Each structure stands twice: as structure tokens, then as C-alpha cells.
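C-alpha cells please, single chain.
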Amino acid sequence: MVILCAGIAFGGDLSTLNAGVAAPARYLFSMSRDGALPPVFSKLHPRHKTPYVAVLFLGVVTLLFVATGSIIYIASLSLFADLFYYIIGFMGAIGLRIKKPQLERPYRAPMLKVGATISILVYIVMTTQLPKDAVITGILWSVVGLFLYYIWNRVKSDKDMSLDFESAVFGQELPETPSEKELERLNREYSLWRNIVGIAFVVSILLYIVPYIF
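Here you go.
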């Protein structure tokens, strides 16, 4: 059982490694393209069309952090950032659903407000389990980031660089609304994955609890 759990955990780490390496560089790329960061981070490789400057920059920063030997602190700070980003995303989804209920959407997730609210509460509880120094540092960085974003947004407004709502949210025009047949397929896929996640959750809890019972 221990070997099985270790294999599942190791396989999961490998499956998310690519996204963990690629996604942060795309954050810098998108922010640079929007004007929130220097233009150098939005440069693309002439052949591979990847934001190579952002990738190299984050690689150097990561090596410097690893060289300090504070891997637990760095990992905790990274977890705080992940949880914080998800909380912001869920809050944004709820706010968008409330403020723009009639906005044309390619797909409407059912029970979004309930699911997002529960997720926010769960992530807040998870945040409280992190080391205090990582949480404090994460909060300070978040405050600084929000302040800088506020300044950037004011400068952007002064330059009359406002975008229409759909472009600001989606970065491009909305695609056409799916057909009834397509919506049925999406709903079936959603139900399937919801059941899979539910079963996986129950199995995970049982794997954790059963050894303590027997």
C-alpha cells in the first residue's frame, strides 16, 4: 500500500511538473504584454515561440532560492501563492456572475456560487496550516503587488488605454455559443469528472483513515 501511494504521488508530481514550470513564465509574459511588467518579458523565441526571457529569468531566480537552502520556506510560500491565486480566481468568478449575470458565456458552470464559496473556505483553512513566516511574507507581497497594480491601473487609465469588457476579461472576442448538442456533451463530461473526483476523494479519505481503524 505504501509503495502504491508513493507511486501515485510520484506520478502526480511528474504530471504537474510541466505545468509548474511553464505557467509562471506565462504569467510574466501576459503581464508584460499588458504593460504591467517591462516589455522584455513578452519577447518570444524566434523559433519555438515561447517566452524564453521569462523562462530564463524564473530559472535563475529559482536557482538562487534553492541555493539558500530554505526549501521548506520557499515551498510554503509557493503554496500560499497558489492558494491565494485560486481564492482570487473564485472570488472573481462569483463577482462576474453577480455583476454580469447576462454576459454571454460559451459555457455556464452549474452551481458556480456554491462550489466557488466552498472552495474559498477550504483554501482559507488550508492557508492557516502553513508556517506563519510564509503566510506573513505572502500577505506582504500580495499587498505590495496590489498596490503596484493599482498604480499601474491609474497610469493606464490616464493614458486612455481602457479596453472593452469582453477584451479585458477574455483577451479576445467571445466564441460562438455552443449548440444544444455541444452543451449536452459538455454537461456529460462535467458530470463524469465530478463523479470521478468524488470517488477519488472518498477513496483518498478511506486510504488515510482505514489504517488507523484496523
